C-alpha cells in the first residue's frame, strides 16, 4: 500500500483555514504512515497548549474517530492528544478526511538502543497499567462498539482468518494475495492450526479483557527522555488480553535492535507479575498473542505486496509454532 499522496502546502493551508474559520500559518509536512499524512501548523488563537496543531489527512474516517474516542482513556500516564476537529476534505479537492489534534513534543522511540528503551520501562509500565484499569463493561455503548467490547478474546484471536466483510475494509482481498505469495499461505495454515489449539485453553477462553492499543510502535508514541508525551493512532485499538501490547513489542523486536537488546519479557517482568498469574498461563497467553500478530501481518504484508516483510514475518512466526 503506497503512502498517501503528498499535498501542497497551499492546499493544506486553504483547507484548514476554511475548516477552522481562521487563517493558519507556517504549515509544515511531518511525514506519513501507511494510512495518513501529517502536517504541523501554527495555532494563532492558542487552541493547542504548545501553540501548534497537527492535521492528518487520510481516507479512513475510522482511524480519526478512534483517536477522538480514545481521549476517554487519557491521563498523565497515558497522554492522548486532544482531537479538535474531524471533517471531510472532498470540498477542498482532497480525497478523504482530516483530523486536527493538539501537537505534542518528543521523538519516536522505535529506533532507541537498549539503554534508551530501558529508561522508558517505568513510564511504559505506567501507561499499560492505565489501559489495564479500563473496564469495558462500564463503557458507554459507542466505546464498546468502537473497540469491540462484546467480542471474546478467543473469537478475536480466531477472527484473524476471516476475510473482511466490508467492501471498503483496507485489508479486503488478503486471502487471494496470500495464496499468490511465495510460502505465505502454507505458513498461515500451519500457524492458524497452532493458534486454534492454543485458544481452546481455559486461560484464553475465560480471560477477562481490557483495552489494548495494539500498535505501540510504528511511530505511534512520542517520548521525551524517560517520559511518554503522546500516544496516538488508535485505529487498531481493541479489547483483549492485557499482555498483548507487550507481546507486540516482543514479536517485532528483531526489527528494532533496541527492543531486542532490552529483552521485553524480562524488562517488564515486574509489571507482568502484577497480574498474579502462573508462568505457564503467561507463556500460553504470550504465545497466543504472538501467533495472532504474526498471522495478521502475513495477511497484511501479502495484501500490500511487501514480500520482504512477509518473509521476515514468516520466519518470526515460526519461532512461536
TrEMBL record:
Domain Aminoglycoside phosphotransferase: 27-257
Record-level Gene Ontology MF annotations: transferase activity
Transmembrane domains' residue ranges: none
Alphabetical list of Gene3D superfamilies matching this protein: 3.30.200.150, 3.90.1200.10
UniProt keyword Protein transport present: no
Keywords: Transferase
Keyword Cell inner membrane appears in the UniProt entry: no
Name of the protein in question: Phosphotransferase enzyme family protein
Amino acid at each position: 500500500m503506497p503512502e498517501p499522496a503528498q499535498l501542497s502546502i497551499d492546499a493544506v493551508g486553504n483547507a484548514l483555514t476554511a475548516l477552522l474559520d481562521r487563517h493558519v500559518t507556517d504549515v509544515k509536512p511531518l511525514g506519513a504512515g501507511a494510512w495518513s499524512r501529517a502536517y504541523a501548523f501554527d495555532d494563532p488563537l492558542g487552541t493547542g497548549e504548545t501553540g501548534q496543531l497537527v492535521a492528518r489527512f487520510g481516507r479512513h474516517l475510522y482511524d480519526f474517530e478512534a483517536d477522538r474516542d480514545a481521549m476517554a482513556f487519557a491521563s498523565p500516564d497515558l497522554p492522548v492528544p486532544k482531537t479538535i476537529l474531524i471533517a471531510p476534505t472532498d470540498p477542498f479537492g482532497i480525497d478523504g478526511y482530516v483530523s486536527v489534534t493538539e501537537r505534542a513534543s518528543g521523538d519516536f522511540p522505535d529506533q532507541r538502543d537498549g539503554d534508551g528503551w530501558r529508561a522508558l520501562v517505568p513510564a511504559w509500565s505506567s501507561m499499560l497499567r492505565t489501559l489495564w484499569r479500563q473496564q469495558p463493561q462500564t463503557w458507554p455503548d459507542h466505546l464498546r462498539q468502537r473497540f469491540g467490547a462484546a467480542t471474546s478474546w478467543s473469537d478475536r484471536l480466531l477472527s484473524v482468518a476471516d476475510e473482511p466483510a466490508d467492501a471498503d475494509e483496507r485489508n479486503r482481498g488478503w486471502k487471494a494475495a496470500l495464496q499468490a505469495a511465495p510460502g505465505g499461505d502454507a505458513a498461515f495454515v500451519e500457524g492458524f492450526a497452532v493458534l486454534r489449539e492454543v485458544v481452546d485453553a481455559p486461560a484464553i477462553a475465560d480471560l477477562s479483557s481490557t483495552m489494548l492499543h495494539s500498535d505501540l510502535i510504528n511511530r505511534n508514541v512520542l517520548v521525551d527522555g524517560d517520559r511518554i508525551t503522546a500516544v496516538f493512532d488508535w485505529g487498531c485499538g481493541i479489547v483483549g488480553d492485557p499482555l498483548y501490547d507487550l507481546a507486540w513489542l516482543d514479536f517485532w523486536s528483531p526489527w528494532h535492535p533496541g527492543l531486542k537488546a532490552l529483552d521485553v519479557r524480562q524488562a517488564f517482568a515486574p509489571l507482568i507479575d502484577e497480574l498474579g498469574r502462573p508462568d505457564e498461563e503467561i507463556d500460553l497467553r504470550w504465545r497466543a498473542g504472538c501467533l495472532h500478530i504474526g498471522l495478521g501481518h502475513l495477511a497484511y504484508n501479502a495484501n500490500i505486496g511487501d514480500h520482504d516483510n512477509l518473509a521476515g514475518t514468516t520466519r518470526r512466526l515460526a519461532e512461536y509454532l
